Amino acid sequence: MRTKLFSPLTIRDLTIKNRIMMAPMCQYSAVNGLANHWHLVHLGQRAIGGVGLIIVEATGIVPEGRITNNCLALFNQEQCEALKSITSFIKSQNSVPAIQLAHSGRKGQCDGEHYAPSAVAFSDQYQTPRALETKEIYKLVENFAHSARLALRAGFEVIEAHMAHGYLMHEFLSPLSNKRTDEFGGPLENRMKFPLMVAMALRDVWPKNLPVFVRISASDWIEGGWDLEQSVVLCHALKKIGIDFIDVSSGGTLATAKIPFAPNYQVPFAKEIKHQVDILTGAVGLITKAQQAEDILFNHDADAILLGRELLREPHWPIKAALELGEVPPIPKQYEKAY
Ligand SMILES: Cc1cc2nc3c(=O)[nH]c(=O)nc-3n(C[C@H](O)[C@H](O)[C@H](O)COP(=O)(O)O)c2cc1C
Q1: Whose CA is nearest to atom 2 of ligand 1?
Q2: Number of C-beta neighbours around residue 204 at 10 A
């Protein structure tokens, strides 16, 4: 029997060999935004382990858009070159290299001036950001497009726009962090404007035969904040632009949010968006077991499974999951004697 977890997923002209994806995870191990041996071995090991698509951590599109001074960045040629060995190794293992393009906004803790839609701090532990001027917002759209061009040159096959977790684009979406009174603030349509401009620019740069993903926070988990209903409207608009896949996370706008962490706690969001918008979605968050992942797909709650921390503990999780589910395990020939 063919399981859902190990059936391929084709998006545009790209076929992902299974439904297991590695969620983007900051490693805080870069200097000057440059990928190094840590990133190659860390990501490469999950490719060896059989993961179908690997998303490189939140990567800053401008220096001040990094979360920390040790986060990856992609705005110059040197950073592009440093990523090439990673994409080439991931592809050599028949896995798909993807990268999350990001801007930290008011949650940035790296050097540089921090800005956001409005001059409202994330918490009293954080600096108060400066509110962006209109022309700066347009410039950031160009910065995202520039990073996407570099990502393509570096060998990536998928880009993911980071619109989640209380970073810059999510800050525009949520009424809790966006207090603007111009065309980028107020009604939902205005709050969506900057993220949609970015999505459009990315889709424009990215080859027509390759997919573009977006990660969203489907809810702020706070009364009066960003929620599922608004996420559905956003995803309809993203779909219209040509975004192929929504990676559905949640939270991150305010530290005080009460999030009901439990296995599958974000799956209902992925399910609702998948069915209401008719778009491919990925489920993420406290998914650790093979049967749990299989059930999510079997129930049509999502089209792929993203694993974060479980892949840090178990770099070869797909091999283990395949053995558990009675599938042919994706064991590289170099490791066959171990099984
Ligand atoms: C060390 C670490 C770093 C993370 N960095 C990112 C990131 O760069 N971008 C992002 O969207 N999410 C990031 N996350 C969130 C994960 O992608 C994932 O959504 C979250 O850990 C929940 O999935 P899990 O329960 O499988 O770990 C990070 C999580 C961890 C544990």
Answers
A1: 25
A2: 12
**CA dist., res. 292 & res. 305, Å (int):** 10
Q: Is 264 exposed, middle or buried (0-12, 13-18, 19+ CB in 10 A)?
A: middle
| Residues 323, 49: Cα–Cα separation, whole Å | 13
Which tokens sit at 246?
Answer: 């929504």
Give the residue-averaged pLDDT of 113-142. 97
* Distance from the alpha carbon of residue 58 to the mean position of ligand 1, in angstroms: 9
Domains of the chain: 9-338 (3.20.20.70)
Q: Whose CA is nearest to atom 14 of ligand 1?
A: 25
The structure tokens 């022309």 sit at: 135
Number of the ligand 1 atom closest to the C-alpha atom of 311 = 26
Q: Is the pLDDT of residue 113 over 70?
A: yes
Q: Is the pLDDT of residue 1 over 80?
A: no
Residue 39: CB within 6 Å of ligand 1?
no
**CA atoms within a 13 Å half-sphere pointing along the CA-CB vector of 238:** 33
Q: What is the pTM of this model?
A: 0.98
**The pLDDT of residue 2:** 87
- Coil/strand/helix, residue 73: strand
18 in ligand 1 pocket by Cβ < 6 Å?
Answer: no
Q: Which amino acid is at 85?
A: S
Model confidence pLDDT, tens digit, residues 279-310: 999 999 999 999 999 999 999 999 999 999 99
* Phi-psi domain of 146 (left: phi exceeds 0; alpha: psi -120 through 50; beta: other): alpha
The pLDDT > 90 percentage for the chain reads 99
